[in-house]
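step=encode ok
step=design start
structure_in=
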């Protein structure tokens, strides 16, 4: 016998029939919209060979140059994303732990900083870094990758480190209170309790949200194209499209590349989560035969 759902009752025949009809209608509407879009593109000549040739035809004279530039854009995007992720994790972890370890009054400046940066759009933090830091005399032109890369990294880190700090705080807060009390009872200091007991357990709880935020960081690197700071994948695609006059085709390829990178990152998160579950799962023990009295 099937166990009834805790959240809602199992749908009956009429409800399943209505759901099937609604799903069929929605699918039909989507198919019609896609067909209309394809027809409009075809009428405008967007499927012409000269537009797709530089991307799909190895014999096209621009094929090698286009994919070389796209490869540079992918490398630039991954470089900015890796740097922003590393700094966000380090600073966010420190800020999150400091907020939990400090007293009520001592953590007021940290809470104020978190709420301030959380309320700003990411593009504002990037723009602020690119405009204010030079005014303050911060010269990043000699840094590897150029100043545009580091303005992007600083802006992304400023926003995402506080988000990661809140994710860490929520993960630790979700643990039973007895974990902290037991650690303190056996003589561990508050710092050792946080480092040895609470954070390792909270990792599994906050892993999905943490990986989702890392995907967001990767996608937000494209904001540099809006400000013209750094030639990452999206800006590289825009420059190619301006020269070849095929923005739909080039940006479609850029979108597919972003999807593939983010999908693989999500799959990596799933793999890490499954391995962590297997590591903490108790091993089955053999049944102990009952003694005959």
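sequence_out=
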């Amino acid at each position: 016998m099937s166990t009834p759902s805790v959240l809602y009752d199992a749908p009956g025949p009429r409800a399943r029939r209505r759901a099937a009809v609604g799903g069929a209608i929605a699918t039909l509407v989507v198919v019609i919209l896609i067909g209309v879009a394809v027809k409009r593109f075809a009428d405008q000549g967007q499927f012409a060979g000269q537009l797709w040739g530089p991307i799909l035809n190895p014999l096209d004279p621009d094929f090698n140059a286009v994919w070389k530039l796209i490869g540079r854009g992918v490398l630039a995007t991954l470089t900015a994303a890796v740097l922003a992720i590393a700094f966000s994790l380090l600073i966010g972890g420190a800020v999150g732990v400091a907020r939990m370890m400090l007293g009520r009054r001592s953590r007021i400046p940290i809470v104020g900083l978190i709420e301030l940066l959380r309320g700003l759009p990411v593009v504002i933090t990037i723009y602020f870094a690119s405009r204010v830091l030079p005014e303050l005399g911060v010269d990043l032109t000699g840094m590897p990758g150029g100043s545009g890369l580091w303005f992007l990294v600083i802006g992304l880190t400023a926003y995402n480190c506080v988000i990661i700090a809140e994710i860490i705080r929520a993960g630790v807060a979700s643990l039973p209170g007895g974990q902290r009390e037991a650690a303190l009872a056996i003589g561990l200091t508050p710092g050792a309790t946080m480092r040895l007991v609470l954070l390792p357990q909270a990792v599994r709880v906050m892993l999905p949200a943490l990986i989702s935020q890392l995907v967001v960081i990767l996608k937000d690197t494209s904001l540099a194209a809006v400000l013209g700071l750094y030639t990452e994948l999206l800006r590289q695609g825009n420059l190619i499209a301006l020269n070849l006059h095929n923005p739909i085709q080039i940006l479609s390829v850029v979108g597919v590349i972003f999807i593939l990178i983010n999908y693989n990152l999500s799959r990596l998160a799933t793999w890490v989560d499954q391995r962590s579950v297997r590591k903490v799962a108790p091993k089955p023990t053999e049944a102990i035969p009952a003694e005959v009295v």
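step=design ok
step=annotate ok -> The two ends are 38 Å apart (CA to CA).
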